[in-house]
Each structure stands twice: as C-alpha cells, then as structure tokens.
Design goal:
Pfam families: Portal_Mu
Number of helices: 19
Biased composition (Basic and acidic residues): 428-452
Strand order of the largest sheet: 5-4-9
Protein name: DUF935 family protein
Structural class: alpha+beta
Distance between the termini: 101 Å
Helix content: 40-55%
Number of strands: 16
Region (Disordered): 419-452
C-alpha cells in the first residue's frame, strides 16, 4: 500500500490530491513482477488454432497474449506497420489550438497554451494513437511544480500489458497486480487513457490489430511457401533412371547425384543410369502467392485507412477522381482521430491541470485539433468580395482559420492597400462623416428608386439617415429632387429626421420598461389595461420631442413651399 498525504491542492473532483502519487511514477517498469521488461513472443510459430485461443482469452479480459501479438505484428508484418504508422503520422497535419468560451479564467487559458506549446505535447498525442491498433493507450504524465504552476514535465507512454480491464464489465482499465488480477483503476490526473471508439463493444476488442491478426497468420504462411518456391525457382526438375538390375547401392548413388547436381552442377553415376531434366514453368509463383498476399494487404489497408488507392499502386493504375474520393474518406478518419484525441486530452489532462492550479471551474478551456484542409483562397476571396458589401457579417477569425493566416503580433509589420486606394478610402470616409456625423452604415445593398432604376450602394451608404421606424441607419432616396439622377446631397427632411432621432433610445427605453412591467404582472387583457393606467408611465419626453419635430417640419415646409 502506497503511503500518501493530503495536499492543499484540490483536484477536479473537489478532493485534495494525494502528493506521493504525483511526485513519483505509478506504472514504471520493474525488474520482476507484472511489469517486467522481458516478454515472450506470440508471433513465432503462430497457428490459426493458437490465434483462436488468444482471441478467446482477450474476450474474457486476459489480453496480455493478444497485446503481445499486436506488438509482434508491428515488427513482423511490414504492410500493417506501414499503414498503422501512416494513420499515426496523419495527426501531424492537424492544428492544435486552445478554445476559451466566455467566462474562462484568462490565466488558465495562458497556462494551457503553454502546455500545448511544449515540444513534448505532440509526441504525447502521437503516443495516444497507439490505441488505434491495440484498443487503448495509456500515458503517464510526471507532474512537477515548475514555472509557478503544477505541470507535466515528462509524458511516459506505458506498455499496455501493464494494465487489465475489470473482470465484471471489461470497461474500467486497472493497473495489473503482481498476481495478474486487476488492481486500482487508473484515472486522471495520474494517467491519460485513450480508448478510440472504432466500434461498439469492449475497448480491448476495438483495436484494428484484432482484425489484422487473421491476415497476419495467412500472410505468414503464404510468405513461407513463397520463400520455399523461390529457393528452387529456375532449377529444372531432375529425374534419375536406373536399370531394373540396379542394386540398392546403385539407387542410392543415383539419388545423391540427382540431389547434388542442383548445387554442384556435377555428378557421377554408374554406367547404364540416366538423368533427365524437365523444364518447369516458374512464372506461376507470383500469380498465386503474390496475388494472395496483395489481397490480404488490401484488406488490412481498408480497416486502417478506410481505402486502398493511396496505400498501394496497382498495375492498372487509377483515376484522379477515384483518388480524390478515397482521399476524402481518409480525411474523415483523420478528423475522427483528432476529435477523439481532443476529447481524451481535455478530460484527462486539461481539466485536471486547470483544476489543480486554479481550482475547480464552471467552464474550462479546451484543446481543439483541427485538420487544415486545402482551401481555394481565390474562390473564398471572390465570395467574400461580393457578399460582404451586400451586408454579410463575417468573422475575421473565421476567415483567418480558412486561409491559415495567424493573428499578427503587435510589433509586426502589416500589409496594406496601395497608397492611391487608401487615399480614396479615406476621402470617402471623411465625406460620409461630414454628411451624417459619426455613424456606421450597416446595409449596402442596392435599392430601386421610383422609376425602377438602381441607386449605387456606395452612394446610399455614404448618405444614410436614421429610419423613423427602427432608429437604425439606412440608405435614403429623399435627397434626390429628380429620382432618376444620382444622389449627391442630403435632403433637409433627412437631416431633420436624423437630428430628431439622436436621443430616441433614451426616450423609448423608459416607456417600454414601464409598459412591459405592467403587462408582465397581468394575467389577462383587462388586468393589463388596468396595470397600465395605474403605472403612470411618463410620456412627457416623447410628447416634447414630437412637438419640437412637428414645429420644425412645419417651418421647413412653409419655407420650401
């Protein structure tokens, strides 16, 4: 039993952390016992009968022989090892970032960003991918107080044979005892446990090594037969003929000569005996053994990568369209692996690290692993160039992610528009400000005048006024004395409306607040009317504003008309 003392640091479950468990290695290898470094091999002399025993034992929780076979397969089955490595390395193409929802402690976000910036972090994620083949993968972070925070300083990938699932449901992964029985259940923050959900069922039965093992057995037999065939390939079939009166000694001499002539190209035989050489067709070996092995390799590629075209090159080749379709299938698998690895890291590393350093949180920052896909920037730019002027609101962060352009630092030199274009934009902005004050135009869509002709969106945006109905800025058409001509100046009525609505929110909000409060307390229409009468809503500011605007509009009408 390991002695522990209760720490003042609170874990993600709200309980104090046991200090000794974080200071030392829990699942380190041992010289003797269940975590000994010396392990036997299961691949040597493997037969279908023995493979069946291994699989049945794994079904009951005795997975050590199965895991040993999975390790042997990565060393001996070259195609399986290559395809599995391809899937592991595919995660190097993902972008790892920190997502901070509203309400997250900024210091916690900075701390997590420092964790993923550690060069060991991508290697730890790659170690988690070992679970694709075996069904699960375990990494033990070694925690130390460093840089003013408790953080992992080393990520140790642990041999999957050091662990075993519980005997009841085969769901809880436990540290194996010296007796071979399941011991204490592993959990965060002491371990990072990754169980890829490749299919339903017990995690130990989800690994692709379970399916590839049958191909490994048959491929091993086929290679042995093909090697034996290659050993005698090109050597003619030799037939020794002896006389009916030959003695046993003569027959033995002839047999030795027939066997030796293949290697020595010379032999002596008694007189009266003959050796005939029969030519054989040696071109059948590849058609039988080679095609069978290629068939098995193709099936292994399917279960690991989901396709075969990017894994093998067939003699007949393949079309570009087929390759693109199958590449998309492969990208789906990469996104799947990235999403599942993100969930594991957030559960077993990010949340415990934040909780131990900043206390339990209602909202935690999360690590996201996103696949950077090839983006048609020309099409994206053309679409934004048309949609944004029409009023589509697009997040700059979204565009940066699509274009893979990072946020610039404060001291970095920025690209800008050419000087002539910048001057034109500045002149247009000054013209807009002098016309309508410090306002922003939210809609730049083209509108039609009374005669059906379109007015330029830029003119409408520059000469916008506030709408009497909603108080927001819109383009106007009243400024044109002749509706068929372009707008060049604001109409006096537009200016009057704009000035009258400068304080419309201050007038509206008290009225609506009293009205909504009175109606909210009512249970029926009559009670709502009674509450409104009792509320005594002050409408004097609205009446005064309407009176001033009415007087000004009458005066303007008398002068112009």
């Amino acid at each position: 039993m390991v002695e522990t003392r209760r720490s003042s640091i609170i874990g993600p479950d709200g309980q104090p952390i046991m200090v000794p468990l974080l200071k030392g290695e829990t699942a380190a290898p041992e010289r003797y016992g269940a975590r000994a470094l010396i392990h036997y091999s299961e691949a040597s002399g493997l037969t279908p009968a023995r493979l069946g025993e291994i699989m049945r034992g794994a079904n009951m929780g005795l997975a050590k022989p199965y895991l040993t076979l999975a390790i042997d397969m990565e060393e001996r089955y070259l195609h399986y090892a290559s395809q599995l490595q391809t899937r592991r390395l595919a995660l190097d193409g993902v972008t790892i970032s920190v997502s901070a929802p509203k309400g997250v402690n900024p210091k916690a976000v900075d701390f997590i960003e420092s964790l993923i910036a550690d060069p060991m972090f991508p290697d730890m994620v790659a170690s988690l991918q070992d679970g694709v083949g075996k069904g699960y993968s375990v990494v033990e972070p070694i925690w130390e107080y460093e840089g003013g925070a408790l953080r992992p300083v080393v990520y140790q990938h642990r041999d999957p044979r050091y662990f075993r699932y519980d005997e009841v449901g085969l769901r809880d992964l436990c540290l194996i005892e010296d007796s071979g029985l399941p011991g204490p259940r592993i959990e965060a923050p002491y371990f990072i446990k990754h169980e890829p959900y490749l299919r339903a069922g017990s995690p130990v039965r989800r690994g692709v090594a379970r399916s590839a093992a049958w191909a490994f057995v048959m491929q091993t037999f086929a290679l042995q037969d093909w090697a034996a065939f290659c050993e005698i390939y090109g050597i003619p079939f030799r037939i020794g003929k002896f006389h009916s009166s030959a003695t046993n000694e003569d027959k033995a001499t002839l047999l030795r000569a027939v066997r030796a002539i293949a290697n020595d190209a010379a032999a002596i035989i008694p007189q009266g005996m003959e050796i005939d050489f029969q030519e054989t067709n040696g071109n059948r070996g590849e058609a039988v053994f080679g095609n069978f092995i290629s068939y098995l390799d193709g099936k292994v590629s399917l279960i690991i990568l989901g396709q075969t075209m990017t894994a093998e090159v067939s003699k007949s080749g393949g079309s570009l369209a087929q390759a693109k379709v199958q590449e998309n299938v492969r990208m789906d698998i990469v996104r799947f692996d990235a999403r599942q690895n993100s969930a594991t890291v957030n559960r077993d590393l990010i949340r415990p690290a934040v909780a131990m350093n900043f206390g339990p949180q209602d909202i935690y920052p999360t690590v996201q692993m996103e696949l950077a896909e090839n983006e048609d920037l020309a099409a994206l730019g053309a679409f934004l160039g048309q949609a944004v002027p029409l009023g589509l609101k697009v997040s700059q962060n979204y565009v940066r992610k699509r274009a893979s352009i990072p946020e610039p630092d404060e001291d970095e030199e920025l690209l800008g528009a050419p000087a002539a274009q910048a001057d034109a934009s500045q002149e247009e902005a000054e013209k807009r400000q002098s016309a309508v004050g410090d306002r922003q135009s939210e809609k730049g869509a083209k509108k039609k005048d009374a005669t059906g002709k379109k007015v330029a969106a830029e003119q409408l945006a520059a000469l916008g006024t506030r709408c009497p109905s909603c108080g927001e800025i819109h383009g106007t058409r009243l400024a044109a004395d002749d509706p068929t001509q372009a707008i060049t100046a604001l109409h006096d009525t537009d200016t009057l409306v704009d000035l009258a609505l400068t304080d419309w929110r201050e007038i509206r909000d008290p009225l609506l607040a009293g009205l909504l409060a009175a109606v909210g307390r009512a249970e029926n229409y009559e009670e709502a009317l009674a509450n409104i009468e009792k509320a005594g809503i002050d409408s004097a500011p609205l009446q005064e504003a309407l009176a001033r605007a009415t007087a000004k509009s009458r005066g303007l009408g008398d002068v112009r008309d």
